């Protein structure tokens, strides 16, 4: 079809060609530019993207694109959380990588209809993922980086020699194999023992009537678990909508009945019960996720 086919018969053809071109549709920001978005703009854009993500079918190309954009937009949260662990010996890139896993989990679990910011919801999940990383992979006793790297070298040399000798090699044999000083090998083998330790709950010898080390020496602090739960709950409660926080305060702080709360708020006791059950379930799930 030509321009003349769609133009009015009374208009000259050259007039059509002089018309101002139609402005192109706005193009979404490229992934490499998302990290430069101002925090306030990132929050506003994230909110819109979360609402869009909720209506998309998981596994589709558009769903993956929106989810990936949300990850890029909120990587600043990961870096903010990772800075708290900058004193640790692990490379910062590794910490950020682990924190990004926590960010993805937070994105997948966030409900955009709730009345609080995504950052408030995501930071505990990101921090919990990083803490879990240190708990599962870090050395139980701090040793210098040189010793940590030496442990891997000694372990590989020990495996190679054990296959060749058909027995466990001696420190001298390992030292000769690696062209190292025997004393350095002995020091490295001792340091390797710090990678993992026996639990205080580990059963003692069969003749040990008192059981584990913890049973013999540990003193149980009453209320310790309650204090831990309370500290973990504080940021989760702070993230709740004001009405839900007020109902929790009246029920567990002022010890009011559900009927009394309903009278004060002008709602039924049944409605108060539903709000309490929903709020407590959400807090319980968040606590289990962080743990």
From TrEMBL:
<dbReference type="Pfam" id="PF04542">
    <property type="entry name" value="Sigma70_r2"/>
</dbReference>
<dbReference type="InterPro" id="IPR007624">
    <property type="entry name" value="RNA_pol_sigma70_r3"/>
</dbReference>
<dbReference type="Pfam" id="PF04545">
    <property type="entry name" value="Sigma70_r4"/>
</dbReference>
<dbReference type="InterPro" id="IPR014322">
    <property type="entry name" value="RNA_pol_sigma-B/F/G"/>
</dbReference>
<protein>
    <submittedName>
        <fullName>RNA polymerase sigma factor</fullName>
    </submittedName>
</protein>
<dbReference type="InterPro" id="IPR000943">
    <property type="entry name" value="RNA_pol_sigma70"/>
</dbReference>
<feature type="region of interest" description="Disordered">
    <location>
        <begin position="1"/>
        <end position="29"/>
    </location>
</feature>
<dbReference type="GO" id="GO:0016987">
    <property type="term" value="F:sigma factor activity"/>
</dbReference>
<feature type="domain" description="RNA polymerase sigma-70">
    <location>
        <begin position="94"/>
        <end position="107"/>
    </location>
</feature>
<dbReference type="InterPro" id="IPR036388">
    <property type="entry name" value="WH-like_DNA-bd_sf"/>
</dbReference>
<dbReference type="InterPro" id="IPR007627">
    <property type="entry name" value="RNA_pol_sigma70_r2"/>
</dbReference>
<keyword id="KW-0238">DNA-binding</keyword>
<dbReference type="Pfam" id="PF04539">
    <property type="entry name" value="Sigma70_r3"/>
</dbReference>
<keyword id="KW-0731">Sigma factor</keyword>
<dbReference type="InterPro" id="IPR013325">
    <property type="entry name" value="RNA_pol_sigma_r2"/>
</dbReference>
<dbReference type="InterPro" id="IPR014284">
    <property type="entry name" value="RNA_pol_sigma-70_dom"/>
</dbReference>
<dbReference type="InterPro" id="IPR007630">
    <property type="entry name" value="RNA_pol_sigma70_r4"/>
</dbReference>
<keyword id="KW-0804">Transcription</keyword>
<keyword id="KW-0805">Transcription regulation</keyword>
<dbReference type="GO" id="GO:0006352">
    <property type="term" value="P:DNA-templated transcription initiation"/>
</dbReference>
<dbReference type="GO" id="GO:0003677">
    <property type="term" value="F:DNA binding"/>
</dbReference>
<dbReference type="InterPro" id="IPR013324">
    <property type="entry name" value="RNA_pol_sigma_r3/r4-like"/>
</dbReference>
């Amino acid at each position: 079809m030509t321009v003349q086919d769609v133009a009015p018969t009374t208009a000259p053809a050259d007039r059509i060609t002089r018309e101002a071109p139609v402005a192109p549709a706005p193009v979404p920001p490229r992934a490499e530019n998302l990290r430069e978005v101002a925090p306030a703009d990132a929050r506003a854009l994230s909110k819109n993207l979360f609402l869009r993500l909720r209506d998309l079918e998981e596994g589709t190309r558009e769903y993956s694109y929106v989810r990936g954009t949300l990850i890029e937009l909120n990587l600043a949260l990961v870096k903010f959380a990772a800075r708290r662990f900058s004193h640790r010996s692990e490379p910062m890139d590794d910490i950020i990588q682990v924190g990004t896993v926590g960010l993805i989990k937070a994105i997948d679990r966030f409900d955009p209809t709730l009345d609080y910011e995504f950052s408030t919801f995501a930071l505990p999940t990101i921090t919990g993922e990083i803490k879990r990383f240190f708990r599962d992979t870090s050395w139980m006793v701090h040793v210098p980086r040189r010793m940590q790297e030496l442990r891997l070298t000694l372990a590989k040399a020990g495996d190679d020699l054990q296959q060749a000798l058909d027995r466990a090699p001696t420190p001298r044999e390992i030292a000769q194999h690696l062209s190292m000083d025997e004393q350095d090998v002995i020091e490295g083998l001792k340091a390797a023992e710090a990678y993992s330790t026996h639990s205080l709950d580990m059963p003692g010898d069969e003749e040990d009537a008192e059981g584990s080390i913890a049973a013999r020496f540990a003193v149980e602090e009453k209320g310790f678990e309650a204090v831990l739960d309370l500290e973990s709950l504080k940021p989760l409660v702070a993230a709740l909508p004001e009405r839900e926080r007020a109902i929790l305060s009246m029920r567990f702080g002022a010890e009011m009945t559900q009927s009394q709360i309903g009278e004060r708020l002008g709602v039924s006791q049944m409605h108060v019960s539903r709000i309490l059950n929903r709020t407590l379930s959400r807090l319980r799930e968040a606590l289990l996720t962080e743990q």
